[in-house]
Give the backbone structure.
Amino acid sequence: MNLTAKSNNKLLIHRNMEPTTLENSVDIILTPQFYTFLREDLDLKFSYQAKQIAPSIFDDYIRSSIEYQYYVYKCDDQWCFFAYNIDEIDQFLESVGIEKHRVSKIYFAQQISDELEEPVLLSEKSVLKNIDNVVTVIPKRIMGRESEYKTLALDELKIKGGISMGASLNSFVSLKETIILSSLLFILGLVFIVEGNRIKSSIATEDAQLTALLDENPKYASSMLRNSILEKYQPIDTNERLKRETMKEISKLLSAKSQLKSLSVNEKSITANITTADNTINKQVKEHAAAKKFKTSGTGLDLKVEKTL
């Protein structure tokens, strides 16, 4: 198979697929051969909360010896959970000639369950079908001889969500979460720039007033006066520099598995409340914060880091 059309074609990935040659990027749709799916009725509001408990949801369904990644989204009044191993997927893609840098996004066949009410032929031996609202790969031999098979128009499918291949290989976080985290850091950067420009403008105004005053009163242009002015503004400059450095250190504590819940900045201290994905990440963040002289506290997976200015 050779896909040379426009970028971001969609390709259905299954165990018996033919080797493929790609010249452009594709979005891949994984069959259940590459993931484990569960649907749970949970009283949760946000997807990050569901993702935090995903490992415990799959305790009895996946092997503990393998490191899995998780994808979660709200489906009607329930939560849909997916467990997958990105290394296994990567190795299989390589075995059929698909380079991982060619993969833009990863979707799951469960996300197109409405399109699979009629069976889709995967190979001479297997069929993909929606059975009781769960997309399943079943042997072709159990289908009736008169069964008719649907042809999926993959490129016409509109699928929401999905995972970026780069995010899965590095931090196991969806593209949406990556964008949110990047946006947060961008906003923090803007705050630094705006605050810096405000201080710079204020100092420039004071310097202009000082120059005008010295022009009118040359006798004040003494080293004692200059030192007095320096003593006045030096603490302000030092404090603002410490603020910027502290904010930069807090940003280094954040990742897809340690997310900022709130941030408080005043003249005396900077406090950040961080929620972590699990106890291991919580411990790592706490150790890194302590190394940067932050005072840490908190319960469970929530962590509070604080530094006095």
